[in-house]
Amino acid sequence: YRQKPYSTQTDLSLAYSPGVAEPCLEIEKDPQTAYDYTAKGNLVAVISNGTAVLGLGDIGALSGKPVMEGKGLLFKIYAGIDVFDIEVNEKDPEKFIQAVKAIAPTFGGINLEDIKAPECFEIENRLKEELDIPVMHDDQHGTAIISSAGLLNALEVAGKKIENVRIVVNGAGASATSCTKLYVALGARKENILMLDSKGVITSDRPNLTESKKFFATDRRDVHTLE
């Protein structure tokens, strides 16, 4: 998407009324042409409810706005992508999903940000299924990509193979579980991974584990802490 110069009354009459009617009618006939006639294809929504702001926790939608604005700046500087930051004052997953779906036609992509687990998993999965634009929960997948790159570089320096090393993951939230799933996809063996949460090592005999924690729960009974 490239910005067109507007310098005369004629230019403005093409950009707005009456000229704007033509692209509107084209989009009505074929919604995909919105990517040709509007900024949709270069516009991403960074959306959060402020329930899991990095290092700050559940500080609320408005308090998380500076983080969302900062993320928008990164999009613009490093990728030339325009961003609207949107703070949604809603913790209920279903209501949050419906709010995002209602505004989705504006955007070419959705970047979910700082939404707490386990709600973030349902929100992302549902939106991926129900929208026709890319949806990514950055805390999961963006973090996983960077973390995995660091791990692969460290293994290269150490002269080790990922399938042979033991990995300890200190945390079991959205970022930690997504990072660890990518490690496994890259060749790490699940039996070589120990994941910890606030109660210690996640073992398969612990009750009330979430599905994401069950996936990485170890069958070992001889270890409960790192000591």
Q: Which H/E pattern describes the elements? A: HHHEHEHEHEHEHEEH
- Give the mean pLDDT: 93
CATH level-four homologous superfamily name of the largest domain: Malic enzyme, N-terminal domain
Query: What summary fits the major beta sheet?
Result: 4 strands, parallel
Task: State the end-to-end CA separation.
Answer: 55 Å
Low-confidence stretches: none
Total beta-strand segments: 7
Widest β-sheet, arrangement of strands: 2-1-3-4
Identify the notable features of this structure and list them briefly.
alpha/beta; elongated; 7 strands; 3-stranded mixed sheet; Rossmann fold; oxidoreductase activity, acting on the CH-OH group of donors, NAD or NADP as acceptor; NAD binding; NADP-dependent malic enzyme
Description:
It comes from human gut metagenome. This is NADP-dependent malic enzyme. The protein is α/β, with parallel strands linked by helices and 227 residues long. It has helices at 9-15, 21-29, 34-37, 65-79, 93-103, 119-130, 138-158, 174-185, 211-216, and strands spanning 43-48, 82-87, 109-112, 135-137, 167-170, 193-197, 200-201. It has 2 domains: 39-133, 3-Layer(aba) Sandwich (Rossmann fold); 141-216, Rossmann fold, CATH 3.40.50.720. The protein has 9 helices and 7 strands; from the N terminus they run H-H-H-E-H-E-H-E-H-E-H-E-H-E-E-H. The strands form 2 sheets. A 4-stranded parallel sheet has the order 2-1-3-4, with helices on both faces. Strands 5-6-7 form a 3-stranded mixed sheet, with no helix packed on it. Strand 6 and strand 7 (200-201) form a beta hairpin. The mean pLDDT is 93.
